[in-house]
């Protein structure tokens, strides 16, 4: 696989951003964002798509930790 050109990278990132924005606006409803997801997946190398999906999951998890806090497994509010 050759490295994507600058234009291909911009196209990929733009498609990713549009897809992620749709997910944010529609409470993660992938069905409502299916067309944007197809565009994103066809605009980016498969390895990048996999990475970006993992990255989004991590960012959402991190955001949840910052807003909801952290409670160790096995600990309850009563402890």
Summarize this entry quickly.
The protein is an all-alpha fold. Helix content is 67%, strand content 0%.
Describe the fold and architecture.
The protein is mainly alpha-helical. The protein has 3 helices and no strands. Helix 1 runs antiparallel to helix 2. It is elongated, with a radius of gyration of 17 Å. The relative contact order is 0.11.
Radius of gyration: 17 Å
Work out the strand percent. Answer: under 5%
- Give the overall shape, derived from the CA principal axes: elongated
Residue stretches low in confidence (pLDDT < 50, at least 5 long) are: none
Helix content: 55-70%
What characteristics describe this protein?
single chain, 79 residues, mainly alpha, 67% helix, 0% strand, elongated
Question: What is the topology?
Answer:
Elements: H1 6-25, H2 34-43, H3 46-68
